[in-house]
């Protein structure tokens, strides 16, 4: 696909909301204590480069997917931090989409605050699920000391010809720190608990062993974990010193993106040609090590990791292996995004914002994935209760309501909280009456040419109007003092309300209008050379769906772009599914029409010639 065609397609997708452009490299970003950089190219199995460690604190995240990093085709990638899988930190909200053809030429950055622990990152695009990894964040230092200690291990003892330690081995740890000084040294033997190191660790149990170790200085900086591995044999040597070989096999019904639908089953097998296999163990999603006796069935939607190991009868333990996979609900794609939940406190407010007489707490939750399963609230520190209807509160004084929501895939939102105060009622309880008028020159589609003027009015026959406020396109509430002149091209929404001098607030009302550039006819045309066929036709197959303008001058055929280059037929079908899903969301087509278009794409040969050529 040519760079010019990619740019045009990216522009059309942006109008549909399929491309999200985060804070760019050209936007002012406050300097952070450290910078972590990810890069990607045309590969869909791994990032070109990614960090493995970091220090807690303010951090600049840089994600570059550009020609400079090896992407010459305009392929989209995302850098998304996991916010739901157990065992990882979920406090950094990172979800960057980058392409060499976007406004920043594929380089984006934002600032987050990292805390000690482990983070998981991945590419959220369908078919790119193998692009994932982890990095560990250690405690930040105090003062100017941000350098962790240096810690080393030395294994001593009598060794046989094969390098095994006869009878026992001693592990001696030493650590140095040139700044604040070493505070503590710790070790972990064969996956056990972390233990303070005070003297050489003597190991006499026959078999393979691993000692992990780390050190922390007085400024709180912790070194990366090191590891010493060795094998102890009984006096006289010989015997079995080779660990077992263990493998994992994941089975189940998979969707086109490689996700397992409903559930996945992990089968472990181990062999040992020496003393024989003694035990096989697994660890699911960072949980406890568990004896393996039968295939492990996982049905919880989301990304999963299963570590595994085996030990033979001579005590030799294999290195840990890992199988990673994703489970999605039947009939749906992968849903790892929690619901969005918000609280609205309603009632008559006085000039200080307190509610007069009573208040009603309304909770609203939405989930674009598997759907909302339940909404809960806790009032004034009480028990969590299922939310089914607005909660009336009449007790005078200060109140706090906490709220949360869970979707059908099991993703739970973070807890939200709203505080409010109820005072005794008095006098005027009727809110002002409000209205909005939009004026300007309109074209044949009722869009305003070049500019629109918004006038808000409010009247109150009781205590009188105290203030009028508005929100333009979802921004913060602002005081209305004079008519608003809106010149930005596009669709705009004005939300407005008024309060009287007794604190009664009118319900917020909303008005919507569109501004277009003069001389552009009914609106901007993103696709001046549109595909104007009467119906949506893909590779010669007629879906019988009307080929309408999607609202920006592009038709459905334009954004499907059947004549573009696709690596495989499957990638083309995924593209059509993504485009039509947005068209349904934006009310351009119905779900039934989307099914007909996707069926036409599946039955077409678009992408098959490219695949054969490769």
TrEMBL record:
Residue ranges of coiled coil: none
Single GO MF descriptor: metal ion binding
Protein origin, superkingdom: Bacteria
Residues of the GH29D-like beta-sandwich domain: 352-414
TM segment ranges: none
InterPro entries linked: BlueCu_1_BS, Cupredoxin, GH29D-like_dom, Ig-like_fold, Ig-like_OmpL47-like, Ig_E-set
Pfam families: CHB_HEX_C_1
Biological process annotations from GO: carbohydrate metabolic process
Secretion signal span: 1-25
Swiss-Prot/TrEMBL keywords: Copper, Metal-binding, Signal
NCBIfam families given in the database record: barrel_OmpL47
Protein name, entry field: Copper-binding protein
Source species of the chain: Amycolatopsis albispora
Lineage: Bacteria, Bacillati, Actinomycetota, Actinomycetes, Pseudonocardiales
